[in-house]
Amino acid sequence: xxxxxxxxxxxxxxxxxxxxxxxGEWPATKIGRIYRFTPxxxxxxxxxxxxxxxxxxxxxxxxxxxxxx
Length: 69
What we know:
rod-shaped, 2 strands, mainly alpha, 4 helices
């Protein structure tokens, strides 16, 4: 898959695809000056990243302060 194919599927500019690949934000294979994408790389691009949520430590701190008062 070419950068133009990815741009068309995502509805963005080809320059944006190149910029994200160059920055390392998106996985791609570079052949000379051209970026190519495997189906697995494209899937990694369209899959949202997993964001870990922080534990609710503020509630624990407040509960501890209320108990000690």
